[in-house]
């Protein structure tokens, strides 16, 4: 990953309390896992931003390196990598996600 790509990723994560790197957009997810992430965040009623990795090969590859996580989507809350769709589902089901999001929104 080039320093420029790393800088772009860091900027997106820093500028958005909840940032999702996904296939498609929050209005038109392009895979089931990305759709799961969007639906969960929508159900919490919190603002979040998305980045469509299908439109940017450098970010698509770079984000995997950046997080050391091989799959998309990738969710960041308050600058911290949370995980992918499976982690989000698990955290949502046990109430942890709501708590994490509330803390992030309050900071």
Question: If you had to describe this structure to a student in words, what would you say it looks like?
Answer:
With 107 residues, the protein is α+β, with helices and mostly antiparallel strands. The chain has a single domain (3-106), classed as Glutaredoxin (3-Layer(aba) Sandwich), CATH 3.40.30. It is built from five helices and four strands. The protein has helices at 3-15, 32-44, 57-67, 85-93, 96-106, and strands at residues 18-22, 49-52, 74-77, 80-83. Strands 2-1-3-4 form a four-stranded mixed β-sheet, with helices on both faces. The longest helix has 13 residues, at 3-15. The termini are far apart. The model has no long low-confidence stretch (mean pLDDT 95).
Unreliably modeled segments: none
Helix content: 40-55%
CATH-derived topology: Glutaredoxin
Helix/strand order, N-terminal first: HEHEHEEHH
Number of domains: 1
Strand numbers in spatial order across the main sheet: 2-1-3-4
Q: What is the beta-strand fraction?
A: 15-25%
Radius of gyration: 13 Å
The CATH fourth-level homologous superfamily: Glutaredoxin
Shape: globular
Q: State the distance separating the first and last CA atoms.
A: 31 Å
Largest sheet: 4 strands, mixed
The CATH architecture term is: 3-Layer(aba) Sandwich
Q: From the helix content, strand content and strand pairing, which structural class follows?
A: alpha+beta
| Number of helical segments with 4 or more residues | 5
Number of DSSP-assigned strands: 4
- Mean residue pLDDT: 95
Instruction: Indicate the CATH class.
Output: Alpha Beta
């Amino acid at each position: 990953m080039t320093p420029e790509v790393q800088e772009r990723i860091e900027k997106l994560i820093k500028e958005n309390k909840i940032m999702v790197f996904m296939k498609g957009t929050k209005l038109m997810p392009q895979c089931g896992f990305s759709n799961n992430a969007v639906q969960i965040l929508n159900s919490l009623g919190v603002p979040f931003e998305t980045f469509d990795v299908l439109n940017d090969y450098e970010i698509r590859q770079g984000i995997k390196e950046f997080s050391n996580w091989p799959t998309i989507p990738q969710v960041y809350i308050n600058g911290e990598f949370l995980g992918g769709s499976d982690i989000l589902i698990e955290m949502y089901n046990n109430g942890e996600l709501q708590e994490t999001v509330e803390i992030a929104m309050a900071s």
